[in-house]
Design brief:
This protein is α+β, with helices and mostly antiparallel strands. Helices cover 20% and strands 38% of the residues. A hairpin with a 5-residue loop joins strand 2 (15-18) and strand 3 (24-27). It starts with a strand and ends with a strand.
Length: 69
């Protein structure tokens, strides 16, 4: 299953907003340097939602596609 995520890296607070269609808007504290925000996003979603996702598109964008595995 794939989901769309709009990421806000470098935020003060961390939170997840889930829309009715399954898309997410995520705020994380990690800065987008050398892929650290992508790695942190995957770990953060595992902790918050309880499902494992991997970034498959949008590695250098705030708009990402993640796939559940």
């Amino acid at each position: 299953m794939r989901i769309k995520v709009k990421l806000h890296p470098g935020s003060k607070n961390e939170k997840v907003l889930v829309f009715e269609n399954g898309d997410l808007e995520v705020w994380i504290k990690e800065k987008p340097i050398e892929g650290k925000a992508n790695s942190y996003l995957e770990k953060f979603l595992k902790r918050e939602i309880g499902k494992s996702y991997k970034v498959v598109r949008g590695f250098r964008s705030r708009n990402k596609i993640l796939e559940e595995f």
